[in-house]
């Protein structure tokens, strides 16, 4: 039975046996499968084993997504066991978010959006030495990276920590190395986070990076009960009083008087709207706090911003972007860039989204958000573990 499902252990329990057969059957029939099973049953091996067997036999790839860091390790350990016992000829790559794989010191504390701007600029201006040693401008590996990839591919599947350490010690961008490792004709298992698959534009870029086609990929979703909340978070963007106050301060520090006035006006509008529109009391009993929240229409906010700043909304976003770029020349992060991103998102779709202003009771802070309600895309071959 071991070969049939790439089950690497000597004994198989009855429940595992049933699950292995169910997963294999579901793949044969190209169906979705939802598994609800207790901790300790061996869901990871009972899913990855038969999925990998099917992928190897049919020239497919697997993307295993999980919200938990510890689960990356379990998945890679499972793949090592399979490789040791069967060595069926597959690649395995463990991806974290780009920020967590970055070789540059000091990026850990950056907000994700700010890091994305920072990294993009480093690449565009060829300022990142790690990137320069990893990838040529034509998008292919450098000679040094080719040698590193040969060395890394010859070993067992690596945990992301091992790849990150290798990148830092040898002067490479580990995220780019991981992308190259996932390419190629061999069946590949990619361990990744939810956002690599659930966020439409990130998914598109990610599949391009790993050179895989979603239609030829088996998606395994670990801890499926987390999906609705994570997807909603991924599709939402917030602007807090902390961020806008910091943006006002940033504009002042850099001497951008007009931008400071624009940002102060936006802050004032949000405060007014937050206080005027609250309809709902949200009682957080656990933390003994409550907050007030209400809905705001897209056009109402945009009209008020244009009226108060005397600046056309899209032009205002462009101006803020320009100032943020200037600041990013000197600093790794810019709060003005965060405000600009929020204003841009506010213009987005109505369908599936809601715009909320919230006033927190304890310190009178506000938060405004453009929240996704639910937006999960239909994929083929989706399994939820
Ligand atoms: S290219 Fe790589 S190493 Fe350079 S900043 Fe971006 S993630 Fe970090």
Written description of the protein model:
The chain has helices at residues 2-5, 14-28, 43-58, 69-86, 98-101, 112-124, 129-134, 143-154, 160-170, 174-182, 194-198, 200-209, 227-234, 241-253, 257-277, 298-309, 313-330, 335-346, and strands spanning 33-34, 61-65, 91-94, 188-192, 217-221, 237-240, 280-284, 289-295, 353-360, 366-372, 382-384. It is of the alpha/beta class. The protein folds into 2 domains: 2-234 and 377-384, Rossmann fold (3-Layer(aba) Sandwich); 237-372, Fumarase C, Chain B, domain 1. The longest helix has 21 residues, at 257-277. It is globular. The two termini are 22 Å apart. 38% of the residues are buried. Mean pLDDT is 87; it is low at 374-385. The structure holds iron/sulfur cluster. Iron/sulfur cluster (SF4) is lined by residues 98, 102-104, 119, 122-123, 128, 130-131, 173, 175.
What descriptive keywords fit this protein?
385 residues, alpha/beta, Rossmann fold, Fumarase C, Chain B, domain 1, 2 domains, six-stranded parallel beta sheet, five-stranded antiparallel beta sheet, 11 strands, 54% helix, disordered C terminus, binds iron/sulfur cluster
What secondary-structure arrangement, pairings included, does this model have?
Blueprint: H1 2-5, H2 14-28, E1 33-34, H3 43-58, E2 61-65, H4 69-86, E3 91-94, H5 98-101, H6 112-124, H7 129-134, H8 143-154, H9 160-170, H10 174-182, E4 188-192, H11 194-198, H12 200-209, E5 217-221, H13 227-234, E6 237-240, H14 241-253, H15 257-277, E7 280-284, E8 289-295, H16 298-309, H17 313-330, H18 335-346, E9 353-360, E10 366-372, E11 382-384
Helix pairs in contact: 2-3, 3-4, 9-10, 14-15, 14-18, 15-16, 17-18
The structure holds iron/sulfur cluster.
């Amino acid at each position: 039975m071991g070969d049939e499902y790439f089950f690497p252990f000597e004994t198989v329990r009855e429940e595992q046996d049933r699950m292995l057969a169910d997963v294999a059957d579901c793949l044969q029939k190209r169906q979705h499968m939802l598994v609800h099973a207790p901790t300790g049953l061996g869901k990871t091996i009972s899913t990855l084993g038969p999925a990998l067997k099917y992928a190897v036999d049919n020239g497919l790839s697997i993307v295993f997504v999980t919200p938990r860091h510890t689960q990356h390790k379990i998945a890679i350990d499972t793949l090592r066991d399979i490789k040791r016992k069967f060595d069926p000829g597959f690649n395995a790559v463990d991806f974290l978010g780009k920020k967590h794989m970055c070789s540059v010191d000091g990026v850990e504390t950056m907000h994700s959006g700010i890091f994305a701007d920072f990294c993009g600029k480093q690449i565009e201006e060829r300022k990142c030495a790690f990137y320069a040693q990893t990838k040529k401008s034509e998008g292919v590996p450098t000679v040094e990276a080719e040698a590193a990839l040969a060395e890394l591919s010859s070993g067992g599947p690596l945990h992301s920590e091992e790849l990150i350490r290798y990148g830092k010690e040898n002067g490479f961008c580990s995220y780019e190395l991981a992308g190259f490792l996932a390419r190629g004709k061999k069946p590949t298992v990619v361990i990744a986070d939810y956002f690599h698959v659930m966020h439409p534009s990130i998914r598109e870029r990610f599949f391009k990076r790993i050179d895989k086609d979603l239609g030829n990929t088996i998606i395994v979703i670990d801890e499926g009960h987390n999906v609705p909340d994570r997807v909603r978070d991924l599709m939402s963007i917030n602007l807090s009083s902390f961020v806008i106050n910091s943006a006002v301060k940033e504009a002042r520090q850099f001497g951008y008087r007009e931008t400071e006035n624009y940002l102060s006006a936006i802050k004032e509008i949000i405060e007014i709207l937050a206080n005027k529109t609250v309809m709902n009391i949200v009682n957080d009993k656990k933390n003994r706090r409550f907050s007030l929240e209400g809905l705001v229409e897209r056009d109402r906010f945009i009209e008020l911003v244009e009226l108060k700043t005397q600046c056309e909304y899209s032009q205002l976003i462009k101006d803020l972007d320009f100032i943020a770029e200037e600041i990013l020349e000197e600093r790794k992060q810019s709060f003005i860039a965060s405000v600009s991103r929020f204003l841009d998102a506010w213009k987005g779709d109505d369908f599936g989204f809601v715009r909320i202003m919230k006033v927190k009771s304890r310190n009178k802070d506000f938060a405004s958000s453009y929240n996704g309600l639910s937006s999960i895309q239909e994929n083929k071959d989706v399994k939820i573990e």
